[in-house]
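re: that chain from earlier
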Amino acid sequence: MTLLKEIDYGTPIKLTEGLVTLEIDGRTVTVPVGTSVMRAAMLAEVKVPKLCATDSVNAFGSCRLCLV
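^ sequence. v structure.
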């Protein structure tokens, strides 16, 4: 049996017209305005340990565990 490995980007995708470019751990990534740092990091292939963030719910930063 094969398990599907889906990438959990941490927060839902933002669909906006504007883009912002940032650098995370030396990697440049361009994402839509309003994208969480957690999601931007995953798109830049920088894995940040997380317990509560999931792309099935909106982020609201209540646990402060990941500190991004």
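The first strand starts at residue 19 and ends at 24.
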